[in-house]
What we know:
Elements: E1 3-6, E2 14-31, E3 36-52, E4 64-65, H1 70-73, E5 74-75, E6 81-85, E7 105-109, E8 111-114, E9 117-120, E10 123-126, E11 134-135, E12 144-148, E13 151-155, E14 166-168, E15 172-177, E16 179-182, E17 185-187, E18 192-196, E19 199-203, E20 211-213, E21 217-219, E22 223-228, E23 234-241, E24 245-250, E25 255-263, E26 267-272, E27 284-286, E28 292-295, E29 300-304, E30 312-313, E31 324-328, E32 330-333, E33 336-339, E34 343-345, E35 360-365, E36 368-369
Parallel strand pairs: 1-2, 2-3, 3-4, 3-5, 13-15, 14-17, 15-18, 16-19, 17-20, 18-21, 19-22, 20-23, 21-23, 22-24, 23-25, 24-26, 25-27, 25-28
Antiparallel strand pairs: 3-7, 6-7, 8-9, 8-14, 10-11, 10-12, 12-13, 26-31, 29-30, 29-31, 32-33, 34-35, 35-36
Amino acid sequence: MASWKVSPLRTSCLVMPVSLTISGGTVDVTAYNNGLAANKIVVTGGQITAVSTYTGDDAANKAIDVPGNTTTYFQIPSTSAFLASTNTTSSYNVGNLNNLATYDWVRIGDFVYLHDVELPSGYYLESGNSTATITTVMPSSGEYAYYEDGVLTLRYYEYSGNSIAIRAFADLTVESLGGSTINHIISHAGDLTFMGSGVLDIERNMANDAVNVAGDVYVKSSKITIDGSGGNGIDCKHFYLNGGKVWLDAYFDGINVDTGLTVNGGALIATSTATTNDTLYSAINSTATAPTITIKSGLNHMVGRTASPDDGLSTSFTEGDYDFVAVGDLVMVRNAILTLGDYIRNGNSTPTLSGGADNYAYYSSSNRLI
């Protein structure tokens, strides 16, 4: 892929009367006046950074300069991250095309950030790599994060440091293979989808929600456990559960949604353990006056006014009423909740993923308990 960098002292880097198309490679431009200037700029791929260091009228000198109708004369893929700042310092701020004329720094491309390290499409980051070196070669350990075309694959990846584990700026799918542990996911723009055959543990250890998403959250497969101690588990517009298993244990809201929750399959167990202002927090909560809660016919519901299923089975529930909600393809045995593939050994009250040599109950398929 082509890569070029230019840094003139007192002029614009690229001034063109016709259109400029960038379809790949790396473009890094820093200029005193305009960084990139053309009648029309079309971006279809690649990684772009444009900076204007002019200290006077920002409206006349900017990172990217195109005619007034921005959406006509400056086009980028809907899947690209678009970060922007009104000064020359890099930022996690998602840019707005309508404010393009105000930006001195612009970053465009297909990438995510893992604990403050930019991971472009096609790159790996090895688990436990304290130097945070990205590479296009799969680490020999087989324990890594790999990002490509909007999909972040975590394979036995571990991170619990003091920065956000994952930051996304467009639609992102997180695929878990094996067992991985991270601390937070923030999606500044777009939807977040979980899938995969592995287990993903998300442990909140900072002053953020464990998972905070500007758009919707979709769970298609995989097993996800979220420890939202001290905050919310998931905060998003709408939560969709189509498969997999999600366990949420939060201090405030298990899931806080703007528009509602839809469960078509899989299993969700959400708990709020707050004791202060308890009426404000619940297992499923919403900022909407009348959120939409849709549960596929045939799926079970278990609810509790405390952080346990003390109200037992229920045919329905409303957001904001319960500190405990379990919904989906699940069943209760000996006061323990079993989801598909779970065992409970004779005399125990905690489900396991294997029956062992003991006598056990096994939830093998929908509505079938062995």
